[in-house]
Amino acid sequence: MLTSLNLLMAFVLFAFVSSITPGPNNTMLLASGVNFGVRRTIPHALGISIGFMVLVLAVGLGLGELFKAYPLAYGVLRYVGASYLLYLAWKIANSGPLTSAEPGTRKPLGFWGAAAFQWVNPKAWVMAVGAITTYAPSQGYLTNVIVIAAVFAVVNLPSVCVWVMFGSALRTVLQDPRWLKLFNWLMAALLVLSLYPLLFVESGFV
């Protein structure tokens, strides 16, 4: 079981590294930190952590096997995810200046949107499947899946918030609309580039 201290510490390291490294979630959080600040981006970060925890539970309880049995279903999900990523990239690229919009007219991605995004995020699927297949021994399997999902949520939240705080720190540097526009287009381009593993790399059902 995952009660072994060595196995647990190895998993915590895996969760930290996979959570804090660049990917679609962290790219969007960096952009949101710049455009909206820490406070308005907190629901987005919470949605990522809770949404990913639910995804890990679902994979552990058999969703991964369902996609293996019906690969067409996952193929549809991949292209829905690609479309949504392109939409989010377009929104980031067309974000206005930090001070131009009236309150309430520029809105960051909210809790439910961020949680739902985990289901079409290619990196999230790789992380979830990797965690379950590597760190969930068959003995006490259900308990292990629950522990993995909970630990991932605890480790993931502060990890992704690092990107939010980094983005917020850049707000003073990006007050110039020209630099902000360049930054937002760069973040949008990185988000589009993240489609490569989603559409062109095959690794099992992910």
Automatic annotation (TrEMBL):
<feature type="transmembrane region" description="Helical">
    <location>
        <begin position="182"/>
        <end position="201"/>
    </location>
</feature>
<feature type="transmembrane region" description="Helical">
    <location>
        <begin position="46"/>
        <end position="64"/>
    </location>
</feature>
<feature type="transmembrane region" description="Helical">
    <location>
        <begin position="76"/>
        <end position="93"/>
    </location>
</feature>
<dbReference type="Pfam" id="PF01810">
    <property type="entry name" value="LysE"/>
</dbReference>
<keyword id="KW-1003">Cell membrane</keyword>
<keyword id="KW-1133">Transmembrane helix</keyword>
<feature type="transmembrane region" description="Helical">
    <location>
        <begin position="145"/>
        <end position="170"/>
    </location>
</feature>
<protein>
    <submittedName>
        <fullName>LysE family translocator</fullName>
    </submittedName>
</protein>
<keyword id="KW-0472">Membrane</keyword>
<keyword id="KW-0812">Transmembrane</keyword>
<dbReference type="InterPro" id="IPR001123">
    <property type="entry name" value="LeuE-type"/>
</dbReference>
